[in-house]
Design goal:
Layout: E1 3-6, H1 11-15, H2 18-31, E2 36-39, E3 53-57, E4 60-64, H3 72-77, E5 89-91, H4 97-100, H5 118-123, H6 128-136, H7 138-148, H8 160-169, E6 176-181, H9 190-197, H10 199-213, E7 217-222, H11 227-243, E8 251-256, H12 266-273, E9 297-301, H13 302-314, H14 316-320, E10 323-324, E11 327-328, E12 330-337, E13 343-348, H15 353-360, E14 370-375, E15 382-384, H16 394-399, E16 408-413, H17 418-432, H18 438-441, H19 443-455, H20 460-477, H21 481-485, H22 487-496
Parallel strand pairs: 1-2, 6-7, 6-9, 7-8, 12-16
Antiparallel strand pairs: 1-3, 3-4, 4-5, 10-11, 12-13, 14-15, 14-16
Helix pairs in contact: 6-7, 6-10, 6-13, 7-8, 7-10, 9-10, 9-11, 10-13, 17-19, 17-22, 19-20
The protein binds flavin mononucleotide and iron/sulfur cluster.
Iron/sulfur cluster is lined by residues 262, 280, 433-437, 440-441, 478-480, 482-483.
Length: 513
């Protein structure tokens, strides 16, 4: 009997040797005359277990991990193909504590199915959302998305239903659906995991959007650092086209990004898609009125589109029932940095930062105490341990001068120099600035200089005041959030870790931003 073996083909697993492990298993199986079929699934997101090898048995799938290529002969000898005992045997992966704490909606199929098999996608519930949208029509589809409370997962948390309705209500001969897969935030990888691990989910979400707003063409804009995701999306789009899922009614083109952080900003992304240098456009007009090639355009993040099929298939009520405050449904949180159980965790909004880092994440990998956690990418605030009770929720984070952004959580342990981190934030802004407005273009360069002076103990108090003023100017004077949000990491570092800036007063210094 042919035994199915699952080894992720996801970038994260490949980076730690999944291809070599897959290559080592086939000859070992041949040696003992065992017929096997290796499925290169997506990652389940428990990165410390990658490469995670799973075997399909009568009791379900049994996992082993992390497996190195030279462990393969012993693993096969131990009875891998029947789920035999081995020091790296994990049992059923879904029974591991890392997964028991999760509620997987968007990532329900990721790591389970063959990402390139449309048949498997459908066998595991895929396609039901689009079927439902077709049966209820455009207006009811938008209503369902609005009712679900879904907010854009790209960072700003804008209600997706309202965005779709604006495009639907804007008269035009041609409209576009654009998927923002630029994913430039530090510590984030959820978009990539969907594209590599369940690409038909994104295709289905975009097709539902096309139907809802009256667009026949969609683009997926993927960052250039994601070659495997580009390949996975291109293959899935071809399959979907051959199947008729994509075609005359709605088709998708995959484009590779230009390689700049600012190209993730929606208007800059549109410039880049149009073949120009990615620069931020002043709003209004909103992309929903005048977007790609001057036409009404929906731009959503990968996770926003990927949440929609479930909302349609199971009804908005099941989605809205999960969450906290105005943050409804689940959020794929990405745990990175000095963390023991790093990876992808999908949980309903409302879980506390402490539960995420200490309980699901298992604390630091180094064993040193956590000192700071940056949430929301390079423009997110640094939170000290005393703010670990903050619930994961857009408003709760904003109330503490933070943001959840795209759900990236990067953990720093004792030893991190927070003044160096603040400098890094300013330098990042200076390097990535599109150059269109002065507070960001010039302010970030001056910001690096001022932090250098503070660190060198040059007129420290005066320069801290200059830094605070500069951050205010950047926050209120910048055209987009790149310059406008850089004060969050900088001032949170000053406020919560004043000792790293040479400030010895017990009171936190600097104004909250
Ligand atoms: C500098 C900058 C970079 C951004 N990068 C991304 C990104 O990589 N992916 C993304 O979805 N949104 C990014 N955004 C947010 C987008 O401008 C936009 O709000 C989002 O794509 C809208 O989709 P959503 O409503 O589904 O969140 C970025 C914003 C800024 C200011
Ligand atoms: S804030 Fe920076 S990235 Fe944004 S428009 Fe201004 S110069 Fe460009």
């Amino acid at each position: 009997m042919t035994v199915r073996i699952f080894i992720p083909g996801d970038s994260a697993a490949v980076a730690v040797g999944a291809d070599e492990v897959a290559g080592a298993i086939a000859p070992e199986a041949a040696k003992i005359g065992q017929a096997i079929h290796i499925v290169r699934n997506g990652s389940r997101g428990a990165f410390e277990l990658e490469p995670l090898v799973e075997v399909e048995t009568t009791e379900g799938r049994i996992g082993y991990g992390p497996i190195t290529p030279d462990e393969v002969p012993a693993l096969v000898a131990a009875g891998l193909f029947s789920g035999g005992e081995h020091p790296k045997r994990l049992g059923k992966p879904e029974d591991l504590p890392f997964f028991l704490r999760q509620t997987r909606l968007t990532f329900a199929r990721c790591g389970i199915t063959d990402p390139q098999s449309l048949d498997e996608y459908r066998a595991h519930g895929g396609g039901e959302g689009l079927k439902k949208a077709r049966s209820i029509g455009a207006a009811a589809t938008i209503e369902a998305v609005t009712k679900s409370g879904l907010r854009g997962r790209g960072g700003a948390g804008f209600p997706t239903g309202i965005k779709w309705k604006t495009v639907a209500d804007t008269p035009a001969d041609r409209k576009y659906v654009v998927c923002n897969a630029d994913e430039g935030d530090s510590g984030t990888f959820a978009d990539r995991m969907i594209m590599e691990g369940d690409p038909f989910l994104l295709i289905e979400g975009m097709a539902i959007c096309g139907l809802a707003v009256g667009a026949t063409k969609g683009f997926v804009y993927i960052r250039s650092e994601y070659p495997l995701a580009v390949e996975a999306m291109n293959r899935a789009v071809e399959t979907a086209r051959a199947d008729g899922l994509l075609g005359a009614a709605f088709d998708i083109e995959v484009r590779m990004g230009a390689g700049a952080y600012v190209c993730g900003e929606e208007t800059s992304l549109l410039d880049s898609l149009e073949g120009k240098r990615g620069q931020v456009r002043a709003k209004p007009p909103l992309p929903a009125h005048k977007g790609l090639f001057g036409q009404p355009t929906v731009i959503n993040n990968v996770l926003s589109f990927a949440a929609v099929p479930h909302i349609l298939a199971d009804g908005p009520e099941t989605y809205v029932a999960l969450g906290h405050g105005r943050s409804r449904g689940t959020m794929p949180v990405q745990l990175a940095g000095d963390i023991k159980n790093g990876g992808l965790v999908e949980v309903p909004f409302g879980i506390s930062l402490g539960e995420l880092v200490d309980e699901i994440g298992g604390g630091t990998l180094s064993g040193r105490p956590v000192r700071a956690v940056q949430v929301g990418g390079p423009l997110g605030a640094y939170f000290p341990r005393r703010l670990f009770d903050t619930p994961f929720d857009y408003e709760a984070f904003a109330a503490r001068d933070g943001l959840i952004g795209h759900g990236g959580v990067v953990v720093f342990s004792e030893g991190v120099d927070m003044a160096a981190q603040a400098r890094f934030a300013m330098e990042f802004c200076a390097i990535e600035s599109c150059g269109k407005c002065t507070p960001c273009r010039i302010g970030a360069v001056r910001g690096v200089e001022v932090i250098d002076k503070i660190r060198a103990d040059e007129a420290r108090a005066a320069n801290l005041a200059v830094l605070t003023d500069l951050c205010e100017t950047m926050k209120y004077g910048s055209l987009c959030a790149l310059g406008g949000f850089t004060p969050y990491p900088v001032m949170s570092a000053v406020t919560h870790f004043p000792e790293d800036f040479g400030v010895t007063t017990p009171e936190p210094v600097g104004q909250e931003v």
